[in-house]
Amino acid sequence: MSLDPFGAHFDDVGVRYRASWRMTQQGTVAKEAGGVALDGATCVFPAGAITGLLGRNGAGKTSLLGLLAGFRRPTAGRVRVGPEGQEQDPWENPAILSGVQLVRESGDVMAEEDVSTTLKHYATMRPEWDSDYADRLLDLFEIDVEKTPAALSRGKRSALGATIGLAARAPLTIFDEVYLGMDAPTRYAFYDELLKDYAEHPRTIILSSHLVEESERLFEHVVVVDRGRVLLAEPADDMRARGTSLTGSAAAVDHLAAGHRVLHRQELGPTVMVTLEGALTEREEAEAADSGVQVGAVPLQDLFVHLTRTTAPKETD
Ligand SMILES: Nc1ncnc2c1ncn2[C@@H]1O[C@H](COP(=O)(O)OP(=O)(O)OP(=O)(O)O)[C@@H](O)[C@H]1O
């Protein structure tokens, strides 16, 4: 039996961190500034879809995902998670949280025990855990289960996180930048595996990223956050339709682009490529065809950069 996919609803959600104190390596006490991580965030992560959660460094992605996994409560607004029509507050709610698997780059593993001990732990925690599938993924990613997670390379630790996230088959599966430590072949193996297993075992998947280019093919839906606010939450194709790319001779492209807002312009010898906001009219499309200008979709990465460019990040890491 597999559980129905969980959706997640954010209504006017705020997260404000209080100032705190921490011990420095020199043994002195330092004050950690508080601040607003989310402010009036309203969006839906649809049940049974793969959603890309996009945002620059410090935008609020991890804070938002921590709410779904019950790590903290919002300081304002309401978060609800669960099967469609039965969403509940996840906070201290075991019925909901047993169906939410958040995979973070930090791992959430037993660092001092061998990998197989961590896997046994997840097998008891996650009702839908598939041990055979976990074994296949461990082979695919060449992870030695007799090592401790601390003895694995950073990339192998990320792959262990991916293994846990996939084999848990949780109705809400969240990957928070989990693939950052992986090399390119491993990341592509992870993306392929995710799509294959999602097709066979439908569930809700959220992938947070600021590396949009290579993961955008996975997204059916996108949520873009910027400085704690939701800039947009919509099907990925609607976001793609927010822009048009034109490639051709400079004269023809610039003529078509006149009257449109140009988001980006690039010259490649005699060829010019521009990204416009919005779509061409039918007349302009005919004109483009006549003048040999290629009209195409805009990669999500370009739109993401454009949408979030006007504001400087609060901080970088
Ligand atoms: N424990 C904390 N105490 C104080 N401020 C925090 C804490 N955690 C996050 N913040 C602040 O909240 C804001 C959002 O951080 P968050 O980690 O949610 O962003 P993010 O989008 O996941 O960033 P990144 O892509 O860099 O991981 C940042 O300004 C950050 O400094």
From TrEMBL:
<keyword id="KW-0067">ATP-binding</keyword>
<dbReference type="InterPro" id="IPR003439">
    <property type="entry name" value="ABC_transporter-like_ATP-bd"/>
</dbReference>
<dbReference type="Pfam" id="PF00005">
    <property type="entry name" value="ABC_tran"/>
</dbReference>
<dbReference type="InterPro" id="IPR027417">
    <property type="entry name" value="P-loop_NTPase"/>
</dbReference>
<protein>
    <submittedName>
        <fullName>ATP-binding cassette domain-containing protein</fullName>
    </submittedName>
</protein>
<dbReference type="InterPro" id="IPR003593">
    <property type="entry name" value="AAA+_ATPase"/>
</dbReference>
<dbReference type="GO" id="GO:0005524">
    <property type="term" value="F:ATP binding"/>
</dbReference>
<feature type="domain" description="ABC transporter">
    <location>
        <begin position="15"/>
        <end position="252"/>
    </location>
</feature>
<keyword id="KW-0547">Nucleotide-binding</keyword>
